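Slide 14.
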Amino acid sequence: MPSDDLARSAERITPTKLPFDLDAGLLKKSFYELEEAFEGQQGLADLIERLAEKSSIFRDTLLSRSAPLSEEELETLVERMFTARRKIWPAFDAVGAAKVGEAMSDLLTGHGSLVQRMQRFEEAVPATGKAQRALRDVAAEILHFTAPDVYPLMTRWVWDQGTVSGAIREFIPGGDYLTDFPLGESPEMFEGVRVWMQESLAELGVYRDLPYLMDVILAYQYSQYLRAMAEGFLRSDFGGQSDFTEQIRKLLGVETQRRFGGSRLKRDGLH
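Slide 15: predicted structure.
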């Protein structure tokens, strides 16, 4: 693949104007609550460091390489994609790691717009049902963690227009009572949210590690939504954990514990 700098130099996402005013007060409150939950700035810094390590793994695996992607390398990536790793492996296994790697390369450095490349990536891996929907999350993780300063995190748990759910909804004043959420799922919308978050954090004097810090804040809001809406779902997908800090780590693919040890992948695609 081309070098990181060359691959990213021409890519720019223009933030769109959001149809709602988001609640900056809630974002700032989330930041302070996270500092407290992670026992101060050092605990939060440790989590951000783990996200930076994940990003480094994605870049080292996918950028500036000439050999085909191996199954071991693909497993290393997918293990760090929480919303995809229980659903996507059978589809990847059927296509083969080398072909998946080619699709990832095209996603990152191929011709056409970002939306066109994301669509080609989803079309390159035949999948149905939950696996097909998980392909969007895979594309979002690959883009964001290879170039976190360029691409906002666009996973379904950040926003899913089909289910009108996600972390973004938690920042919409009166969101619990609204029925129409015309946000869409364009990269420009996600970038609009990211710019708003940057500006809100700047008012607190926070400027460092913003791509990862914003990921953590989004994961925090989504974990709170899950805890409020579906305790049974939490027990199922989060292994019965009551510690929301570990739920945040899990959403972001950097958790410290593995249930029963071994790989985190769901290889057979069955629940």
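Speaker note: The chain has 13 helices and no strands.
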